């Protein structure tokens, strides 16, 4: 919330009816790291339960440390924070907290990243990670009709060999999690870790029939976006905001309607932009790209889905039509079967007619 407040402090407030329109707008979240939803309060509670020492005396002190200068300064804290996750129940509670929070934002479907290497490196079994996350997602589906999927992401600061080893560990679980585990992603430090580094493991995942996505063009150059498409054969680009530096790439992204999962508050917190009013989301949208709004690591960046929508709506003065385009793009960009996608699009149409 803090980043949102700073960015709009010199921007006129949104009309109350537009705020409530955004809050109730049905939406899909396609760029969310479940480890990035670990709020300081839960992080402290898990540290205590699992006897993990923290270098912070209080929740407030920890929150005060969330002042990032770039992606790496965030990743250092994010990986350290994830060390409190030890048991299946811990992963369950973290995931359930995210579901409660995103249902309140009227997120109707979420495709969630998880980073097994962050945990297996510390001796946590990969089955523990899958099981805790999936138990929460299945419970939310059965109790509330909350629709979701899991995207297992490789850490790009690690080697391709280590990514292959993670894939080998995970594949025996595939049948057990067939209802949820639909895709493979690529995240962590982008600069100096180009898509080609993971060409072989992505080719294998493609053969295995997974959906493919990758972070590209967050801090890295537009060539990484092009190579994520041409070398890794991804179907969506996570972030992709630096694509704007390459007009040929922009034309292609628009013509092929390749979804970009943009994360406005993340971009502000990680200094990809220094002012939300300068964010290129509206320009990308107007250039015909399939832009979506997402929260990335909401516990660290100051807001969940609605905070992201409200921040761009206020700073970029987005109209209802533009906001609906963003929500529509989010449903169209899901990996849901056509009928389920259509159902969500109809729900969105119904909402627009009623408001
Ligand atoms: N914004 C981001 N970029 C790259 N890797 C990440 N892992 C978690 N959040 C990330
Ligand atoms: Zn991300």
Automatic annotation (TrEMBL):
Its cofactor is Zn(2+). Residues 26-349 form the Adenosine deaminase domain. GO terms for biological process: adenine catabolic process; hypoxanthine salvage; nucleotide metabolic process. Substrate binds at residue 297. It catalyses: adenine + H2O + H(+) = hypoxanthine + NH4(+). Pfam families: A_deaminase. Keywords: Hydrolase, Metal-binding, Nucleotide metabolism, Zinc. One of its GO terms (molecular function) is adenine deaminase activity. One of its GO terms (cellular component) is cytosol. Zn(2+) binds at residues 31, 33, 215, 296. The active site is at 218 (proton donor). Binds 1 zinc ion per subunit. The record marks 239 as: Important for catalytic activity. Its EC number is 3.5.4.2. Belongs to the metallo-dependent hydrolases superfamily. Adenosine and AMP deaminases family. Adenine deaminase type 2 subfamily. Catalyzes the hydrolytic deamination of adenine to hypoxanthine. Plays an important role in the purine salvage pathway and in nitrogen catabolism. This is Adenine deaminase. It comes from Collimonas arenae.
């Amino acid at each position: 919330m803090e980043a949102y407040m700073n960015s709009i402090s010199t921007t006129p407030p949104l009309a109350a009816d537009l705020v409530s329109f955004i809050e109730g707008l049905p939406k899909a979240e396609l760029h969310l790291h479940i480890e990035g939803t670990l709020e300081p309060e839960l992080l402290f509670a898990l540290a205590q339960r699992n006897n993990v020492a923290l270098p912070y005396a209080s929740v407030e002190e920890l929150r005060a440390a969330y002042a990032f200068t770039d992606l790496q300064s965030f990743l250092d804290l994010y990986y350290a924070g994830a060390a409190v996750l030890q048991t299946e129940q811990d992963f369950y509670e973290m995931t359930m907290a995210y579901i409660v929070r995103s249902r309140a934002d009227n997120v109707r479907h979420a495709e969630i990243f998880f980073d097994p290497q962050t945990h297996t490196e510390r001796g946590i079994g990969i089955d523990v990670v899958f099981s805790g996350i999936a138990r929460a997602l299945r419970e939310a589906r059965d109790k509330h009709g909350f629709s979701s999927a899991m995207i297992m992401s490789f850490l790009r600061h690690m080697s391709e060999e280590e990514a292959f080893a993670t894939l080998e560990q995970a594949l025996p679980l595939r049948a057990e999690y067939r209802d949820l585990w639909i895709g493979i992603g690529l995240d962590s430090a982008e600069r100096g870790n180009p898509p080609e580094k993971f060409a072989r493991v992505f080719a294998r995942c493609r053969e295995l029939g997974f959906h493919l996505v990758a972070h590209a063009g967050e801090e890295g150059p537009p060539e990484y976006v092009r190579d994520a498409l041409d070398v890794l054969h991804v179907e969506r680009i996570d972030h992709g905001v630096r694509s704007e530096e390459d007009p040929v790439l922009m034309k292609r992204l628009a013509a092929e309607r390749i979804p970009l999962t943009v994360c406005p508050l993340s971009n502000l917190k990680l200094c990809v932009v220094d002012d939300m009013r300068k964010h290129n989301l509206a320009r990308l949208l107007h250039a015909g790209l399939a832009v979506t709004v997402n929260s990335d690591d909401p516990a660290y960046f100051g807001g969940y889905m609605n905070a992201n929508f409200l921040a761009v709506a206020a700073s970029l003065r987005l109209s209802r039509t533009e906001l609906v385009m963003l929500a529509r793009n989010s449903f169209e960009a899901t990996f849901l079967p056509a009928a389920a996608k259509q159902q969500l699009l109809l729900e969105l149409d119904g909402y627009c007619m009623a408001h």
